[in-house]
Amino acid sequence: MMVLQASQASHLAYMLSRWQFGFTISFHILLAAFSIGLGSYLMVLEGVWLFTGRSMFIDVYHYWLKILAINFAAGSVTGVIMEYQIGTNWGPWSQRVGAVMGPLMLYEVMTAFFLEAGFLGIMLFGRQRVGRMLHFVATCAVALGSLISAGFILAANSWMQTPAGFSINQQGMFVPESWLHIIFNPSFPYRFVHMVLAAYLATAALVGAVGAWHLLRDPANQRAALMFSMAFWMITVTAPLQIAAGDKQGDNTLRYQPAKVAAMEGDWNTGTPSAGEPMVLFAWPSMAQQRDLDTVAIPHIASLYLRHDWHGTINGLKTFSGNIPYVPLVFFAFRLMVGLGLLLLAAGLTSLALRWRGRFYTTRWFQYCAVALAPAGFVAMLAGWVVTEAGRQPYTVYGLLRTDHSNSAMALPGMITSMGLILAVYAVIYGAGFVMTVNILRRAPAEGEDGPHPRLAQAPAGNDDAMEAAR
Amino acid sequence: MIAAAVQAAGGLVPLLAGLAVAFAVFVYIILDGADLGTGMLFCLAADARQRSAMADTLLPVWDANETWLVLAGGGMFAMFPTAFAVLLTALYLPVMVMLLALACRGVALAYRGEAKGRMKFWLDILLCGGSSAAGFCQGVSLGAVLHGLPSGAAPYGNGVGWYSAFALACGLGLMTGYGALGACWLAWRTTKPLAERARRLAAIGGAATVLALIGLGLWTLRLNPDYAVRWRLSCMMDGRSRSRCCWRSQRSAAAPHSWRAAPSWPCWR
Which among B16, B79, B88 is the top mutation candidate for probing chain A, defined by the most A β-carbons within 10 Å of its own β-carbon? Predict the structure, then answer.
């Protein structure tokens, strides 16, 4: 058996710790984003139903409410894991940034989580127990809670990317000086808009795909047509907005984290003004050789979207004296995100053209395409997070605290054990959740659709044992 | 009394911060403790109908109750970052297992309504096992803190120092307490056959919890001379020697390398 040296073992434990956190946060963010998107979608559906009284809207509401119930449960339990993981795996980081990051999370819990957790019960079980308006208020509270939560988490994340409003004391701990500057740090507004739009876009792509799937099976299903149409209006509007927001965030990143942008572009050498910055379509960035292999590039185009100037250039990766991320990951993730974003933009524009010609609900090839696009938004969003998080390396707090100074000194066997446990439990949570979700979505939305837990949501007369369970 | 408490905690802000975290933990233990106890009792339910009724009582509340744990964690992180970092790293395995067990408990409850047949059976096992493991690990963590965690060379613990017979006993003790809470919850929230059964279980569980508390309390006296000093009935015996009754962080010569996790609690005067 191979015997690891002590330094190799500790490095492997450190890498496992990073992979573990990357794994848990990636799976959590899928659910968090879906909750944001679905929460707002449900708010609109119930609002329209209250306003117009058309039962179709409440049927679609109940259809997706079942998904929200499952999604919310998995999202909240995986969120708890992450909150404690920052202590178990990232002790030194917690100790040094706790005074800044901790209150942001505390405010998130107190403003968002209690709001959501409290009103979710009314939303799921209160259909026949509270009035219509109060139920709508509960739906709005859950939607609002998810947005507040996103606000605080993105403020915390953005602070790690572009730290502001703090000082560092003699023990090396970050001490808050101005909460206004901490929360509204330079990259927060851009990141918040980009993330909320991503959540809306990803949810819309999934809802649109489910609508398309049921339209393919039964073109007369009005409820499927409703979700298909609403989803594609959302995609048509948010896809271009998202691309514009992404461009703005790119400008911001270039200003505060130029090494990340250089990695996104696969740019090792600073360009000359005469040549401009080429747009690299494809390449194999090599960390060892510090250059791109097999490059396919178009000259000057990157100058346009990076500097908005034909001759603009950026600093190459070699100018950052080794403090650069693992370039291939950032480089390919960025291309995946942009590619899928453009695909969604094309789908939105196509839907607009089909509507114009009155063939939106009948064009079957487009419905097949819509089904295929179901995961596109979520994959693009994950890829975007890989760009921004992997691109922040080798730091946790950009420029100030290195990742290899942030981790708990954990022994390798413990890390392997926890990694195995996490993989096993997540396989169960996500496996079972996926099967449940697919089972619900396979049934077409019907007239008089039931919400989740129909037995509990009704008056408790029929249930002897749990008479007061959900009063 | 208040002035003394402030002094013992090292200022008014640390005292209030400590009280806030303690309050969150306290509410969590009462509320989610009852949920976890109910989950543990799943293996004692008579039939599928009773299990369904038990799940119904938990469904609308478990998520909100678990949020108190998130509040406690966020509060520790924000207000006691050093303790958060040191404790969680030192308690690595029990905390990890607790979190994953809580995750299993939560999703098993949420998925249960949509599941049928064999799937429901496995989810119930997950629910019962998750609740039990979460309760046990919380007790183990408490026991490890009372027992003292070695810090050694690594400033954030080595991940295995939590293990002791006393910590395991605390795990079992907390499971007993949660079971009693769960039985009380069911006696309150359900009707006849199940409520009757729960009432009997609550009586047994309550008695067992009191015995466990007494047993573990006496055990702490043997853990470290400090506890004997702190718990000594000197308050009652010579009434006025106040400093003896304080829960103050005193390093003991008997355990020079043991990092005492108990924070500076306010004096009880």
Answer: B88
Helix B117-147 crosses helix A412-442 at what angle (to 10 degrees)? 150
Angle in degrees, CA A72, B75, B175, rounded to 5: 70
Percent of chain B with pLDDT over 70: 81
Segment A322-328 shows an average pLDDT of 85
A439 to chain B: nearest residue by CA?
B114
With beta carbons less than 8 A apart as the criterion, state whether B95 and A55 touch: no
Which ipTM was obtained for this model? 0.83
- What local confidence, expressed as pLDDT, does residue A340 receive? 94
The residue extents of the domains of chain A are: 32-257+324-387+425-459
Closest residue in A to B78 (Cα) is: A102
The number of beta carbons lying within 10 Å of the beta carbon of residue A310 is 12
Note the pLDDT of residue B247. 40
What CA–CA distance (Å, rounded) separates A447 from A445? 7
HSE-CB for A249 with a 13 A CA cutoff: 25
- Judge whether residue B251 has pLDDT over 60: no
Reported as a pLDDT band with limits 50, 70 and 90, residue A457 is low
DSSP conformational letter for A186: T
Determine whether the interchain pair A80/B69 forms a contact, defined as Cβ–Cβ distance below 8 Å: yes
Give yes or no for a contact between A114 and B132, defined as CB atoms under 8 angstroms apart.
no
A397 forms beta bridges with A401
In our burial notation (b when 16+ CB lie closer than 10 A, e otherwise), range A77-111 reads: bbbbbebbbbbbbbbbbbbbbbbbbbbbbbbbbbb
pLDDT digits (tens, 9 = 90+) for A151-197: 999 999 999 999 988 888 888 889 888 899 999 999 999 999 999 99
Q: Report d(CA A96, CA A406) in Å as an integer.
A: 9
Extract the tokens encoding B227: 């506890």
Restricting to A residues 49-88, those with a Cβ less than 8 Å away from any Cβ of B are 66, 69-70, 72-74, 76-81, 83-88
Residue B157 is predicted with a pLDDT of: 53
B197 half-sphere exposure, CB direction, 13 A CA radius: 17
Contacts of B182 (CB under 8 A, 6+ apart): B33, B34, B35, B36, B37, B38, B39, B40, B41
Tokens standing for residue A1: 């058996």
Please report residues of A whose CB lies closer than 8 A to that of B82. 95, 98
Distance CA A351, CA A440 (A): 26
pLDDT of residue B222: 80
What does the pLDDT read at residue B64?
86
* Phi/psi at B258 (5° precision): -95, 125
- Tell me whether A421 touches chain B (CB under 8 Å): yes
> pLDDT at residue A139 above 90?
yes
